[in-house]
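Proteins fold reproducibly. Next comes a concrete instance:

***
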Amino acid sequence: MSSGYDSAKTADEIRDGNVEALIEGVLTDNKPVANALLAAEQADLPEDAPLREILERAETTHMLRSARKNGHVSSMNAATGLSETRSEATGYDRLINALRPAAQQAVFRGQKGTGKTGTALELIRWLFREDVVEKVMMNVPVRGMSREDLERAGEISNIPDWWLDEDENDALGTLAPHVRFECDISGFLEFAREPGEKLALFDEFSSSGNAYTNQGDVESIMSKCINAFRKSPNGSLRTIYVGHKNDSDIHPLVRKQSDVIISKDGKADEGMADLATIYDHWEKYLKGNQWFKVRGVRDVPGESPWRYETNYFAHLEWDLDDPENQIDHGKLIEDWEQYQDDDGEGDAASGETRQQAVQCRGTNTDGDQCGNQYVTHESGFCGTHRAQWGGDPDPRTTDDAGGETTREARDTPDTGTSGNTRDDARDAAQGAQDALSALQAATGEHDADEDDRALIAAALQSEHPDDLTDEEAERMADSLTRQSGGSDGGE
């Protein structure tokens, strides 16, 4: 028994890439075949190449036949691996089974460019095909959605024009009405009330939430919505959240409640696009206690109705004006719209107006553009990069030109540069004034506002870029201004 276990364990270690060896070459007793397989791997011959498939299948079959005749348990276990640590073939069976339970909540995390969205959509495609779920709602369009959904998605970000041409896109409408596009959080909450087995995909969930000026309100809405999805009546709602660049961008409540964490291990150009490590619960992920690994993670096939646009900027509109009254006992109330502002443009009583959502024009410490896809603050910068603001409103957030901000303007980041010397001087003066204000807030000379705390957080993070997350820096800035007596009375 021990020998069989050890051989299976060793084989799994080789398959998972923890041992530098070729599993097919280890399993065969035919030295010329083993050498041929090794040469094929060294020549970067694809795993699905006919020659490799024929050799591997023939040798594995020969070895298992011999092991069965002789009762050689170690050989059989080496070929099949441990049932409790390795899923069949590509590992998809086990990963899909992890997403089957009712009300299951999963999080995809990993660097930008690791294929999180594609892997999530492929898994959803399997769950839908196997009738685990009957309905799907996503803030990411796929080519099999209805024309109405695709046109709506195209108003937010670019989709291929040919998707709307039924002569070119033979998948148009084939997933409707079971697979739908939605970008309003109220739409997802109404979806949660529908009967049947459902699944909701939220791409860039926290990034979309971080895009709003009044972060306190958004945090309240996000928390209530996450709990509402968890308590979906009339059936079950499974949720998949695709995280952003940093783990701190994933909402704390999502992290806490997630049943499955799917970590994409690397990028395609690193040779790791098909690898994923699975954890059961966030605490296990933080401790590095993996549940199992999956090799051979797939993307959505190119001709599938589930095919997506890789450059699409996912967006969520947090359109509930009064979540305290609109969400009751974990669900959206029937007459929730009566609590909406009449003009639909923010808080009419306070005179607030909802700004156009535009892509953050800030830059990270490594020089890359900010990952937050949309912001509505007049600066055009998210909270983390607000310190880069010179003081002038971002023209993309206004409608002075007499119309809506165009899709091109939303999708094209503003560099924040100006050739006007007077404007540059005014920006510099405003920046100095903002810095002085933040300093006075930190020393308790006046009450701190949101911009003061953002500047202090940015300064703290610039001093410790590797040690402080955005969330930690903001929390320290808030604590510093409170201890100095510089907290505004509104908090």
